[in-house]
């Protein structure tokens, strides 16, 4: 089902003519009007025919959730075939629409339903606030979730069995619950005051407004490739792999270098600065292992399943399983805590929906630094949580994604917030800008508090980077214990942390940031420590070759040498299109004086390169300071450009 929800000053319609599939209606349905209402434009689809009742129930849950957000109690149910090219049969469409209207009316909501199969003239006046236009997609899985939720527990996660979708993918009960979970979106300002999203003035906070719209609409599908897709190919970093499953990428030498540096940086920072122990665990697990089976149903993700020796296995989506099973077998004292372990999962696997897969933004196979912290109690967990919040800000900043580049979402249960308001307010004060809040009446998942840093790209889509969660279930589920100072055996509180989020998303964020800067008239760049080539040396002519090669040999960093038989102008232009941070041209002047003429990309403007004279030692010193404390690797390609093959 496709649904477009419009919070309107008014909606009115008038029937004009019947079609061949029109339902029979009474006179009072031939025209209708509602004021201060939520208009639900709905297209019932072919896939909804497998579970029309569940689809109607899931739609009702979405509509009621939106009604609470926009503070309305009126709904116009309006059939709108133009939202889909794969419509259900008329009988199913009418049944679902009638079911939605009836269920809403039973809950005391004022409902009008426009007739199915009639040509109608309509006028709608949209209110224009961030929640006033929401696109929703109700899937077969969500319909099943609504049916599960009819048990009345409110979580949609009563069963502990792992179910497979029609495609054979693992669909957890938590994923189903997520689609019907009742949550409230708010904005918290820097003073700690909570605001309704529709009441908060987002002027001056355009990225936050885009993020709010993205989160509330839950529309993850991408209609056009974002800029980073062209850039990752143009810069020869990565590309789609047609020989694999969708969402599995190929990385060329330059892209592999960037990934490797980012991987090393995040893990080394977690180990050296944060005291984590690096471990390694399997990528494949038994789906019927009693502990893992229960955890699968508590994690909101679709999984790959495979069969091995007649056993049903699944590919990991994080390092939780392996680390928790390891923790179970360990002997842990209070003296060891907080105890931190990190693994770089190359790869984690999630069966993301096909329409959501695009470039490096959302993948099915991705690399994620995954750290878990065992804490003695909730007080220690909250202290660690805030420390890791600050740590994640610093990690992204050094990667090149600064505080202004991302928006913060803080999500928690209502009970946790009531008991820990100061912690939430402290988090907002730390970033000194308003954040999006999502609050649940009931805990649906294994955590009571989490945050994400979300990069908002030029397509107005948001992608989570760093995240930390306070987990209150898995110590018991995996039977993880420690011996406290009084000799008693106790269970720890667990933190899940990905200091950077998926490594591929960091590259996506850097490329999207560069594209947005370019659109503003700025020069697109990558951080020097991540640039595949840091310095390019170009001789003006053959007679300058000896001096140019000497200069290249004396520079200490990733230096390549353009020895191709091209014009100087073309060589310089290509250095620009490859975003080389420092380009050194060696001609007569440089050969005579020993001074280099260096084009510094970060200080240049479009069509106005910034050049500075400096010695080899001065350039070495400058680059050394820029990359100090960050991982380093040599050139990923041959030094001489004439020896390089083209990947794209």
From TrEMBL:
Single GO MF annotation: tRNA binding
Subcellular location: Cytoplasm
Cofactor(s), names only, from the UniProt record: Zn(2+)
Keyword Transcription: no
Location, primary (coarse class): cytoplasm
GO biological process, one term: threonyl-tRNA aminoacylation
Keywords, ordered alphabetically: Aminoacyl-tRNA synthetase, ATP-binding, Cytoplasm, Ligase, Metal-binding, Nucleotide-binding, Protein biosynthesis, RNA-binding, tRNA-binding, Zinc
Catalytic activity: tRNA(Thr) + L-threonine + ATP = L-threonyl-tRNA(Thr) + AMP + diphosphate + H(+)
Binding positions for Zn(2+) per the UniProt entry: 320, 372, 496
Family, as annotated: Belongs to the class-II aminoacyl-tRNA synthetase family. Archaea-specific ThrRS editing domain subfamily.
UniProt-listed PANTHER family: THREONINE--TRNA LIGASE, CHLOROPLASTIC_MITOCHONDRIAL 2 (PTHR11451:SF44), THREONINE-TRNA LIGASE (PTHR11451)
Protein name as it appears in the record: Threonine--tRNA ligase
């Amino acid at each position: 089902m496709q649904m477009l929800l419009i919070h309107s000053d008014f909606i009115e319609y008038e029937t004009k003519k019947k079609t061949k599939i029109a339902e029979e209606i009474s006179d009072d349905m031939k025209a209708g009007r509602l004021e201060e209402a939520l208009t639900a434009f709905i297209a019932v689809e072919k896939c909804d025919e497998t579970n029309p009742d569940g689809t109607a129930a899931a739609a009702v849950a979405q509509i009621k959730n939106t009604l609470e957000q926009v503070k309305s109690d009126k709904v116009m149910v309006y059939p709108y075939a133009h939202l889909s090219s794969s419509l259900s049969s008329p009988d199913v469409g009418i049944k679902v629409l009638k079911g939605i209207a009836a269920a809403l009316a039973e809950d005391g909501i004022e409902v009008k339903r426009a007739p199915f199969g009639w040509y109608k003239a309509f006028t709608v006046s949209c209110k224009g606030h961030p929640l006033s236009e929401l696109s929703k997609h109700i899937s077969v899985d969500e319909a099943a979730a609504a049916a599960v939720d009819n048990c009345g527990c409110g979580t949609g996660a009563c069963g502990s069995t792992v179910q497979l979708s029609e495609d054979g993918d693992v669909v957890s009960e938590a994923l189903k619950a997520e689609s019907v979970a009742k949550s409230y979106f708010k904005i918290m300002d820097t003073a700690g005051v909570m605001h309704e999203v529709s009441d908060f003035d987002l002027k001056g906070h355009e990225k936050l407004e885009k993020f709010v719209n993205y989160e509330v609409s839950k529309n993850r599908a991408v209609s056009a490739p974002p800029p980073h897709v062209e850039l990752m190919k143009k810069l020869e970093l990565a590309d789609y792999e047609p020989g694999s499953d969708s969402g599995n990428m190929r990385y060329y030498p330059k892209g592999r270098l960037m990934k490797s540096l980012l991987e090393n940086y995040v893990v080394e920072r977690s180990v050296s600065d944060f005291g984590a122990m690096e471990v390694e665990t399997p990528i494949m697990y038994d789906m019927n292992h009693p502990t893992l089976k229960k955890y699968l149903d508590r994690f909101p993700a679709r999984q790959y399943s495979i069969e091995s020796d007649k056993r049903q296995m699944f590919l990991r989506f994080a390092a939780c399983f392996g680390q928790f099973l390891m923790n179970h077998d360990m002997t842990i004292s209070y003296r060891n805590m907080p105890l931190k372990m990190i693994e770089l999962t190359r790869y984690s696997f999630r069966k993301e929906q096909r329409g959501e897969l695009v470039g490096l933004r959302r993948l099915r196979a991705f690399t994620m630094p995954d750290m878990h912290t065992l804490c003695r109690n909730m007080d220690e967990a909250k202290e660690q949580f805030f420390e890791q919040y600050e740590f994640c800000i610093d990690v992204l900043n050094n990667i090149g994604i600064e505080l202004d580049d991302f928006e913060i979402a803080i999500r928690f249960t209502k009970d946790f917030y009531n008991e820990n308001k100061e912690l939430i307010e402290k988090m907002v004060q730390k970033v000194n800008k308003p954040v999006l809040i999502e609050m649940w009446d009931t805990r649906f998942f294994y955590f009571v508090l989490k945050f994400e840093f979300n990069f908002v790209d030029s397509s107005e889509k948001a992608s989570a980077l760093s995240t930390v969660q306070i987990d209150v279930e898995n110590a018991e589920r995996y039977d993880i214990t420690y011996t406290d100072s009084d000799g008693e055996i106790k269970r720890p509180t667990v933190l899940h942390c990905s200091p950077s989020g998926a490594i591929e998303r960091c590259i996506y964020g850097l490329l999207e940031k560069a594209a947005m800067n370019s659109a503003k008239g700025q020069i697109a760049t990558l951080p020097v420590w991540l640039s595949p080539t840091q310095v390019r040396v170009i001789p003006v002519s053959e007679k300058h070759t000896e001096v140019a090669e000497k200069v290249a040999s004396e520079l200490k960093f990733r230096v390549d040498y353009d020895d191709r038989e091209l014009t100087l102008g073309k060589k310089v232009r290509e250095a620009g299109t490859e975003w080389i941070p420092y380009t050194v041209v060696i001609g007569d002047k440089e050969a005579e004086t020993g001074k280099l003429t260096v084009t510094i990309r970060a200080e240049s403007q479009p069509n106005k390169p910034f050049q500075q004279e400096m010695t080899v030692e001065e350039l070495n010193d400058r680059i050394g300071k820029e990359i100090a404390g960050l991982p380093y690797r040599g050139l990923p390609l041959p030094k001489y450009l004439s020896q390089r093959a083209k990947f794209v």
